Amino acid sequence: MTTQVEEALQALGARLRGFRKDAGFTSGRAFARATSWQESKVSRIENGRQRPSEDDIRIWCQATGQNDQLGDLIAIVRHVDELWLDLRRLLRTGAEQRQQQAIPVYGKTRVFRIWHPTVIWGTIQTSEYAAAVFDQVVGFYEVPDDAEAAVAKRLERQRYLYRGEKIFNVLLGEQALYTNFGGPETMKGQLDRLLAVMRLPRLSLGIIPRTAPVAIWPGNSFSMFDDRLVLVETYSAELSVTQPREIEMYTKAFALLKQSAVYGTAVRELVLRAIHHYDQLPTD
Fold first, then answer.
1. Is the pLDDT of residue 87 over 50?
2. Distances (CA, A) of 234 to 49, 239, 251
3. Helices 3-22 and 244-258 meet at what angle, rounded to 10?
4. Is residue 245, in this structure, part of any structural domain at all?
5. Staple partner for 130: which of 24, 72, 120, 125, CB 3.0–4.6 Å?
6. 266 by DSSP, 3-state: which?
7. Which ranges constitute the DSSP H helices of the chain?
8. CA-CA distances (angstroms) from residue 144 to 62, 96, 139, 140, 188?
9. What is the maximum alpha-carbon separation in the chain?
10. Which residue range is the domain that position 29 belongs to?
11. Is pLDDT of 167 > 80?
């Protein structure tokens, strides 16, 4: 959980605690008996350590005589859901819709800051590499197989590399050159694509070598869209960061990561070395 989610849950919990006390329940134990809940659940909700469900909110409001607050509280719970969105729910109809949702965000953004320690950033992927990625997504999340359509939507974002005044600051970990999606031929095609896009005038491609001293631990991948939104993905959820104080932390992290990166000729050498690695591997 990030600070923004924690703060939202803590504020909600404090409000619910006030409702409980105003209704005459002097302790969490008394309220637990009235609702047939475990006392520990009451404590976790009031202290912001557990996200209450919408049904929990309904029971709480009914037990404390605060039904007029129900709509507002459910809106808060849904806002927390938006901040921390379960990926299986996000992908329940397949991966194409999620890729479609990203296109307007890209259209509105002028400056991108991208950090991917182990995977090539989606907007500069080849179709073969993207297909291998989405095959894994479909299998892992057990969602409808629309990988081909998802690849097409992802590749639509590439048009922004060539038009307008958008600026792309992309950082990859050297491991991204070696994380093998699709086999040697797919990887060599993807690495050749990197050599091409690094020549684009408004795209800066940096790579952090595996042995480079780092000023900050690599952490999860993240994508920054101007100074208004950061998207962070884990295996289970996608986090949308919009609070200015938290966005400043990602800005600082990106700047520290850049200190370890190499650019230009050094990037080309790392990519060519990775291509040579795949040349040595047997193909199917």
1. no
2. 20, 8, 19
3. 160
4. yes
5. 125
6. helix
7. 3-22, 28-35, 39-46, 54-64, 70-83, 87-90, 96-108, 127-141, 147-156, 184-197, 244-258, 265-279
8. 39, 10, 9, 11, 29
9. 74
10. 3-85
11. yes
Which pair of tokens denotes residue 142?
């057990």
pLDDT of residue 94: 66
Tell me, yes or no, whether 231 lies in a domain: yes
Tokens 């006392």 -> residue: 39
Share of the chain above pLDDT 70, in %: 93
CB 262 within 8 Å of CB 207: yes
How far apart, in whole angstroms, are the C-alpha atoms of residue 2 and residue 231? Answer: 12
Instruction: Identify whether 139 is part of a domain.
Output: yes
> What are 280's two structure tokens?
């040595």
Of the given ranges (59-68, 111-120, 234-243), which has the lowest mean pLDDT? 234-243
Phi, psi angles (nearest 5°) of residue 56: -60, -40
- Does the global pTM surpass 0.70? yes
Please answer whether residues 208 and 259 qualify as being in contact, where contact means their C-beta atoms are separated by less than 8 angstroms: no
